[in-house]
Structures are given as structure tokens and as C-alpha cells.
From TrEMBL:
It comes from the Eukaryota. It comes from Tetrabaena socialis. Residues 159-232 form the BACK domain. Residues 67-96 are annotated as: Disordered. Residues 84-96 have a biased composition (Low complexity). The lineage of its organism: Eukaryota, Viridiplantae, Chlorophyta, core chlorophytes, Chlorophyceae. This is BACK domain-containing protein.
Amino acid sequence: MTRPNARGVCSAISALFGNDRDSDCDVLFCLEQQEARKEEREKTAEPQAGSGLVGEPLPGHLLGQAAADARGSGRGNAGRGRRWQGQGWAAAAAAVEDEAGGSQAAAASHHARPSPAAVEFMACWAQLPDPAEEPTFAPVLAAAKEALVRHFGDALAVFNTPSLRKQLLQLPAAGVEALLGSEAFGTDSEDSVLLVLATWMKANHGQTDAATRRQLCRLVRLVQLGRPYLTAVLLALAADHETGAAGSPCAWFPISVTEAGFITTLATAATGVEAERLLCYGCQLYVTQSSYYSTAARPQCLPWTGRTFEWAISQKELLEALGHLPPYGCVSVHGSFVGGSRLLCARGLEWKVLLLVEHGATSAGVVLTCDLPAAYDVAGSRLGSSSKFIAVAGLEARLAVHGWSPGARRSRWDVVVAR
């Protein structure tokens, strides 16, 4: 089935839910223990009081019910009811699998497209069949996860493409697990992977429990973090976890200060021999076989030539800023990257480009500044806005400034982030 046709079938089936149009039966939901009363209910035209019905009857469609009954045959009402809820999985699966097997050219252009079938599919995670109970659903789920990773691409794309960032926040925990647990999800550094999780967690902490948070955090390869994250971010997260109240939004990363310190020492070990000795003793205290200690590198999303991000400032913004230029002073002018954001995320940090103009100067200066991402600014956290956070961070980048061009009265700057 081609992608347009598959999506059309998905939309048509979805539109039938709760719709009287073309309905040829009624669907009744009942408790599973009421199976013994099935024959009694079937003999009457109207449901009897106390019959164990749950909710209101829904208009049904025998075309979808027939396919559901075929898959749920011999499983009782519970099986058939579950397959009726999922009568659109077959069509959805076709769209998802088609998208997962799409060409590389289509994958490369995904940033301009709306949310694909895979994102919508994962959003329904709570209603999806359990692959353990429905083995035939496992390939569909695998295809959905593969398509999800292809859609988001890599950590830099997630942060620097507004539509992808918005879609990330709407994913269920299973979708985030699919991204961080995939060997195909690229990044510029493991710092950005931790930032992906922190960004999602800040928006969705209330929808998680301790077990879910632990499972997601275990996917981050901590020994591959950069020095700023090892010496400041990781230790602060560990301190928040130890001292914060159970379930507090600031205590979301389950690791002790002692283990965070051990990981920092291990990651910054001078030689391979030193690291081996540390692991020899550390395995007696910590689970060194977990992903925390994985040295397997994720795919590098930056090509050797780097990745270019355009930043521009309008003539109106520039003139307004110059209008506030004090005598013998200077003024800084903020522009915007493509998509409207004023910041660029790389190596787990937020970077901004500023145009500095001094009074009486014949030229302006371009400055690249760095800040800790707002994802870590959680109430009660040592990484909050009122904290004293100091770290030395670096970024291999090239700033290219394009001056005013005749007839195009605008300025444009390119930031090339290199490996």
C-alpha cells in the first residue's frame, strides 16, 4: 500500500470512531467477568440494569469488527474488544512501515513535514496492544520506532528545529525511550542526549513515576559526557536527587553523588590502565555493565565540514537598537536563527550570537555567548537560575558575516558548528 493510500485509509477509519455515519451495529463495553451473562444479554434488545456495562454504547462498523473478530477469535470478549479498539492498526501499520522504509532523500527532508504517522502512532502508546499478548504486533511496533528515529534524526535537529522540539515534548515516555535507546539516533555529543531527556522531563515529569524515570535515565551514556557536564551538571543532578524530596521535579535523575564522582573520575582518567583499575574496583559497588558506563559512541551527526545555521537581524531591529545607543557606550543586538529561535543548542549548551555596536565605531563586533539550557532551571535545583554555576565550555565554530547587499537591505550571519 502506498503512503498516501495508507494514510487515507487510516484517516477514514479514525473518522468512523463515535460516528453514526454508515454505522450498522452498536458496540457495548462490559466487564470481563460478565461473560457468563452474555447469552442473557443477547436475548434482549436493550441492556438490563446491573449487567456490568461500562460507559455508553458506541456506534460500530461491522467491516472493522469482522477483521477484529478474525484476529481475536477464541479469545473471548476481552480479546475481541481489544482488537475492535485497534481495528485501524493494520492500516496504520502499512503507513508506518512504508514511512520507515522510505528513501534517504525523504528522510533528509523530514524537518519541513508535519508530524508523521510514527509520531501519531507513538502518541497512542497507552492504547497499543502488548506485543507479549499480540506477537503479530511486534513488527509494527518495531517499524514505528524505526520511523520515529528517522523522523527526529539527531539531537541537534531536535533542538534547532522548532517543530521537532514541540513534537518531542508531546511524546510518551516510550517514544523518548525509543529515541535514546536507538543506535541510529545521532548526536554531536552525549551532553546533547542528556539535554534531550532533561527537556522532555521538565515538561512531562508529572506524567512519570520513579521506575519510568530510572529506565529513561539509564539510557544516557554518562562516561561519554563532556567536561562541563561531568564536573558541574552531573554532580548537581546527583546532589538534587539525594537531597530533594521523593518525586520532586528537581530530583529526577536517580544517581548518587558518590557514583557521579566515580563516573567523572573514570571519564577523565589519564590512561587506559587507570580506567581499567578504576573499573576493577568500581564494579564491586556499581553496575558498570549499564549504559551509564558504555563507551560505544553514538552516530556523529556533524559531518567533517560542519553544519550551518543561519542567523539574521532585520533592519528594523537593528535601527531600534541603534536608537538606544548611549554616548560613549555600546549596545548589543539579538537576532534570530531560522525558525525564530534566538539560541542555538550544541554540545548540550545554549549559544547566542550577539552584534555589539560601540558609539562612534565604524564597524561592529560579533560575539558568541554560552548559557546553561533552561531545561535544567527547575525549582529547588542547584542548576536553577539563582545557582552559581561555573564551567569552561568550548565550541568549534566559524562565524561568517554577510554584509548589506544592494536592494536586499538586510544583514545575515552564518554559524558553522564543526566537529
